[in-house]
Structures are given as C-alpha cells and as structure tokens.
Amino acid sequence: MRTLITNLGAVVSGDIAAPLADADSILVEDGRIMALGRGLDPDGVDQVVAAKGTTAIPGLIDSHAHPVFGDFTPRQQTLSFIESGLHGGVTTVISAGEVHLPGRPKDVVGLKALAIVASKAYAAFRPGGVKVHAGAPILELGLEERDFAEMAAAGVKLIGEIGLGSVKTGAQAAPMVAWARQHGMTVTFHTGGPSIAGSNPIAADAVLEARPHIVGHVNGGTTPLSDADIERVITDSDMAIEIVHCGNGRAALHALRAAEGLGGLGRVIIGNAAPSGTGVVPLGILRVVAHLASLGGVAPEVALAMATGNTARVHGLDVGILAPGRAADIVLVDGPIGSSASDALGALAVGDLPGVSMVLIDGVVTIGRSRNTPPAGRAAEVVGGGSGGPAGGGH
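Structure (tokenized):
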C-alpha cells in the first residue's frame, strides 16, 4: 500500500536537532515513510491524502500512563481513554506501571506474572489502533537478578516508576536498576510527593543514587520536586526529564528553563501521568506542549519534539520521527476554528490547542477530524486512490 500526503503547510520532524523538515509531501509504503520532499510524484500510489495546508507532526507519545485491562483503569472508571487520546493525536502510550489493577500482586511471583501478561496482552491489542507498550513491574523488595532476566526473556522491556512499591530508597533501587539495564529494560523513578496511597515521597538523592533512565514527573504527580532538586537531577545526571500534565505547571516551566540553560532540551519528555486524582485528560499531551510553547518560550516544533522524538529515543522506538524508514505514525493538525493563529504551530505559540484533522498509524488513515480537539480550520481528506479509514469522522 502506497500513500502520498500532499500540500502540507509544514512538516514537524520530531527531531529536536532539526525540528522542521523542508517538505510539503510525505510518501508512505507498507506502513513506513519512504520519502519526504517537495512535489513528490503521485504516480504509482494507491491513495492520496490532500492535507490542504495543514501541518504534519509525528504521532504523539504519552511517556507516562497506568493502563490496566479492558478499560483505561478502574481508578477513574473512564471508558475508552486510550482511544479518546488518539483523538488528541496520541498514537503511542508507554506504561509506567499497571499500578491501579485491583488487588495488584506485590509478591515476586505475582508482580512478574502481571508484568508479563500486560506486556503480551497489549502487544496483541491496540485500543483504537494506538500502540501501547505495557508490562512495567512495580519493584518490591526481594527481587533478584534472575527475576529481571526472566521478565526480559518473556518480553518485558519497562520498569514501572520506582517508589510505588516497597523499594523506596536509592540504595534499595540501585542494584535493581543495574539489573534492569543489564537486561535491556527502560527504568522510570517516581519523584516528588506521594501521588496515591502507598506511594512515597522521593527526592533527588534517591534518584541520583539509583540512576534510572527517566526522572518520572519531575514537575510532580501532583507535588513536584523542589526547585533545587529539579536543578540537581538536571545538572548532575544525563537522565531524561519527564514533564507531565497531571503535575505542577510552574515547576514544569522551571524544569524546562533549567534544562534549556544546560543545553538539555533533548532530555525533556512529556507524559500524562494519568490516571491520578486530577483526572484523566485525553488532550493532556497537547496541553503540555501548548503550555511549554506559549509560556516556556520554546518554539512549538521544539516542544512537539519533546512529545515525540525525544521519548522515542529514550525508549528505542521507531516512531516519533518523520524520516525515511520510520513507522508512518503521522498526525495532521491545524489552527482551530476561532483561533487568532492561522496554523497549528501558531496556535501552540499562543497557547491554543491545534485541531486534529487526520491521524494515520502505520500509514493507515485511522480517524479524520477529532471528536475531542477544537475543530481544525482545514480538514484533510482522502481524494484519490484506494480506500482508507474515515476521512471526515472518527471512531
């Protein structure tokens, strides 16, 4: 299947080093991007998508979620949250632990079993088409190196945010983080105050001693690290710095500026950190991007890279970047009707949420105009070639 997206107003690459691509067309074949350029030849394509001047961005990545089974989570009783997030441009979701499962097992055998089944279940099931990377065990005392080897052999690639279980200190976590790294797992550490009953306050000392890959919700979930601790984890490490929607907005801007001051914007990633007591917000990733672009002073295309390419690099994913060879997860966005801005990047710069005009996952049109964002000023549509998904509606 060959699809050509034409007449793009701009292309955001997701690569923070070169966030805008010189292109007005994207050619997709068999689910992967084959070429970006200007005036690409439509001969031989099966489907043409007329972008009508909208902006192409990589599918957004939610770096911090807590999915369970059947529903997003029983904690908030929110039906179809992941699919609803798709209407906010999120095409990939990464679990920080299936912590809200009722009766979540905390013994070694049980927590391994939960991680393995969550990993395998979501590998075989895409809610609404969204790619969910799940199976992130919450670390408990008593785990040994062989347990990490067993989980890794079964396909577990994540470690849920440390601090939600009985492993609370840097000294307790450090050997487990080392085992996880040895077996190819990506590790997140909870930081800030307790987010739910049973979690623990975690300051910079513990994180710096353990050295995970990701400093989880540095701006709180909901209570953040102190300003001094935010600066320490940015200055004294090369860990990814996660800013989340379910956190403190002022602390988010402090972390952004601290990272920028050290030339470390490539380390900033974005998540929802939902569900939480603050709720579940399908447009949370777009809201954080708009917050950082409009109030944080970074270019909108740079803020979008934090929600796409930066996260993909941390997790070793082939999404998040619009470039030849990458998976064709592409979102077409535009300035919303009524905005003072005329396009998506301008909308983000003034704090408006862009309207989602179309979403493609692995090159397949999955939804048209979003049911959740404000309506995009321009609606992309399939104008020729083979049939795709709905061009003017959605799931």
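The first strand starts at residue 2 and ends at 6. The chain has two domains: 2-58+321-385, 60-282.
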